Amino acid sequence: MKISEFFNRELIITNFEAKSQDDVFDVLYKKLFENGYVKETYLEAVKKREKVFPTGLLLNKYNVAIPHTDPEHVIKPAIAVATLKKPVIFKNMANPLEDVLVNIIFMIALNESHSQVEMLQQLIQLIQDDSLLEKIIGEDGGDGIITSIKMYFKEEYIDI
After folding, report:
1. pLDDT tens, 23-82?
2. CA-to-CA distance for 50 and 65, rounded, in angstroms?
3. CA dist., res. 17 & res. 4, Å (int)
4. Which of 75, 118, 120, 124 has its CA 20 to 30 A from that of 152?
5. Are 4 and 155 in contact (CB under 8 A)?
6. Is the pTM of this model over 0.85?
7. DSSP codes, 25-93
8. Is the pLDDT of residue 128 over 50?
9. In this structure, are strands 7-16 and 99-109 parallel, antiparallel, or unpaired?
């Protein structure tokens, strides 16, 4: 499955003014829940998991977080995205004692654990490209972000 199939415009928020990671979790969860992707239990499960296994990634120019939780909280797979006006603090995945100022959040909702590896490989490839992250941050809406991701993976552009 192509990673672009996990993105939907109704699950993308651009230039979001968040004060904390909880603000981001709350707004992305609401999008996922209202559109039938996750169960009510998803938000609390993501917050609990983030405390134990932080997801902030210190990259080159733009830092990313990839919060997620167990498949039992997910109805159908998706990736919700938030680009932030100002970064918020996440704990570093590699060193949980260290803070990371995160610009982009990819909140993952997968309902099958075996699909996680392939999807994460594609997501890691995506987030390692500074120019793509810059395009994503510069977009004004979900359509532009999805188009940038499809073009990155050289997928045929489909009008969405």
Report:
1. 999 999 999 999 999 999 999 999 999 999 999 999 989 999 999 999 999 999 999 999
2. 10
3. 25
4. 75
5. yes
6. yes
7. HHHHHHHHHHTTSB-TTHHHHHHHHHHHS--EE--SSS-EE-----GGGBSS-EEEEEEEEEEEEEEBS
8. yes
9. unpaired
Say whether 19 sits in a helix, a strand or coil: coil
Token pair listed for 59 = 């990259």
Q: Look at the block and give the residue holding tokens 């997501």.
A: 123
| Cα separation, 111 vs 72, whole angstroms | 7
Give Cα 98 to chain centroid, integer Å: 20
How many CB atoms neighbour CB 105 within 10 A?
Answer: 26
Report phi then psi at 158, rounded to 5: -120, 130
Environment class of 137 (CB within 10 Å of its CB; exposed 0-12, middle 13-18, buried 19+): middle
Secondary structure of 107-160 as H, E, C letters = EEECCCHHHHHHHHHHHHHHHCCHHHHHHHHHCCCHHHHHHHHHHHCCCCCCCC
For residue 150, CA distances in Å to 18, 134, 143 come to 27, 15, 11
